[in-house]
Each structure stands twice: as C-alpha cells, then as structure tokens.
Design a protein that fits this description.
heterodimer, A: two-stranded antiparallel ribbon, 6 helices, B: alpha/beta, Rossmann fold, five-stranded parallel sheet, 56% helix, globular, HalX_domain (chain B), Sig_transdc_resp-reg_receiver (chain B)
Chain lengths: 218, 193
Amino acid sequence: MMSEGKSYDVGDLLPVSSFDAGTNVLVTGSAGSGKTYLGARILAEGADGNEGSLAVTTDGNADEILELYREKADDGSLHFVDCTGAGSGSPDGFPSDRFETVSSPGDMTGVGVAFEKYTKRVGERVEGSRVMYDSLTTLLRYVDQKRAYRFVDILTGRFRAEDCLSVFTLDGGTVDEKTSSMFTHEFDVEVSLRVEDGTREVSVSGDSDAPDGWTPLG
Amino acid sequence: MTQDRPSVLVVEDDEGVAETFRGWLEEEYETYTRLRGSEALELLEDTDIDVVLLDRLMPGMSGGEVLEEIRARNLNVRVAMVTAVEPGFDIITMGFDEYVTKPSSPNRLRGTVEKLVKRDERDETRREYASLRAKQAALESGKTEGELADSQRYAELVDRIEEMGDELGKADAELVDETEFLSSLREVEEDNG
C-alpha cells in the first residue's frame, strides 16, 4: 500500500520540490530545450525512494534516457517500453526482462498492456511509480489528433488511479496552438522549457507552489 | 440511461463552479446543474440521471443530507461527493461512490464520471467494493498514519475491504479497472471515425 500523502520529490530540477501522487505533467518546449533530459531526471529522482519508474519511448532514444538516468542514479528500478518497433532490443548492459517492446507508437493498446505488465511486476514492492512518455510529438505522426487526445485522456486517468507521477513530452513548435491547448487541458501541471542565451529555463504552471516566470532548469 | 448519452447532474451552490463543471462535461454527457439540494432532488425524481456530482457544503440541505435522501428514496444513481472539505472518519458511513477533492481539473472530473458511468453496469457487490476503496483512498490522502492507526472505524473499513476482496476474488476485483482501461484503449485504436 502506498504511504498516506505520498508525494514525488523532484530535487532541484524545477522551481517546485515535489508533485502529489496522481499528478500528470506535460513538458513542452522546442527541440533541444531539455524535455527528454528533464523527464529522465525526474524518473531518476525516485530511485532512492523505493519507487519504480517506467520510460515509454516512441523515439528510439532509450540509450539517451538510460544515460541521463544513470548520471543520477542506479537503474535497478527502471523499466522501458520501446514503441519504435525497430526490434533493436535493450541498450547495452540493460536487462532484457525490464525492456518491453511495442510494435509502433500507434499501438496504444500495446502501451497499455506494457504498463499493466509493469504494475504487476513491481506490485507492492515499490512505493509509487514515475512514468515518462517521450513523446506525444511522435505519437501525432502515427495517429490523428482526436485519437491521440483520447489516448492521453485514458492513460492519464489510469496513471492517476494508480497514484503515479507521469511526465509526457511535447514539442510545442510542431503543433498548432489549438492542439497544444487541447493537450494542456488534460494535464494537472504544465512545465515549459526554453533556451535563452544558451541557458535552459523552465516555467511551471498549474502548481500553486510554483513561482511565476522563468528560472534556470536545475 | 434513457438518453443516447449518459447524464450527469452537478449540484453546486456556486454558480460559477457549476457552470465550469458543465463546460468540462457537456461535450460527452447530458449535463444538468442545480444550485440547491432540494432542486436536485426534484430533478432526480423526474429525470433519469446516471451520475450526481454533489457539493458537500451547501446552504439549506447539505450534500450529506441530499445524499441521505437519494439513498432513502432508492434512487438508482451513482454519487461523487465533490468537496473542498478534508475527509473525516464520518465519510465511512456516507453512501457516496467516489470522493473528489476541489479544486478539480477537467480530466479528473471527466475521469470520475466515466468511472461511475461504467460502474453503474456492474453488480452491487462490486459497486460496494469500489465505494469502500474510494473511502479508503480519501482517508489515506487526508489523514496521517497515526490518525489512521488510532481509528477503529478505519480498521473496520480495511477489514471489510479485505473480506470483500476475498469474496470477489482479489485478482478479479483488481482487474476491473485494468480491463476498462485496456478496453478503452482498444476502442480508440479501432475508431476510424
């Protein structure tokens, strides 16, 4: 059973120190703004807290996520779902039994099944789970907006029911304002990233503890 | 459900909040709003409603009193208590199906309604089990471990949940939400519209 009042610490990464259990976070920003970095580091922040973590990648960047994770923590509680369908297998040195594959980013049921397998596997051994979905930008190349939206709606509902912390990434520059806004409404918190004078900056909205404006990304 | 779409009644004395909830729900659900508990009961007698979102603190009849009346009249409706009130142990005896803490979000509210609409199709034992689990979750998020440990009522609630879990077959009970989840994803994939 999850301890009462569970929250997920995010260290010094963001201008907020933690998120409540069941929070779904959307990370937006242009290419190179640090979305994958932030998602992987948020996962790694839970490694010492007896939490499990699941990285769902549609971009074939499991190696990058693993590297970012390992810079911060041991990967013993990390699991992957690779949706590229490339069949390239798990990154070097990463156990295959914590690496699931799904046929394509459009195989939404496959992602759901992989998540259920993950929850059954970690069971009550963990006190909470962090899930990263990287990225919605790729999903939108495989399915239309309506279905992507419904997929996100169902997935975030499930993560909330399981008291997870989820982090989805979206390149805001690749979608129109209406689409971006539509997705934003599905999430409890939006984390925006940008690069100013070579520095990555972050702004958090939807969390009452977050200060207004931009601050350096931790 | 007599309409094509499931129906939701928002009972909320703050008109602004009621209209916000309506805006979040009306695309998917036949949505009604009432600002007073007595008006809500009148509508429930005349109209087939699937889910009621009930504010706990209202002038006149409180949400708790409306809920008692709904159950006393045997109205076949699922009720979510939507409230800014921290849950106390008194919720254990209340007849709601879900407990939502304000401020809510569109996704959270729609998720609750969707869950309750689907729960309407289940048998009574599973409904009661889901309701007890919702109470347990509300208390565990609002009380300290010490307060929970000191509460006889909480201990009895947990015992009852375990008993019912055994009765239903634990795996079966826990699979309910999973099954809905995967079915919903399949529906999205298969929808070519």
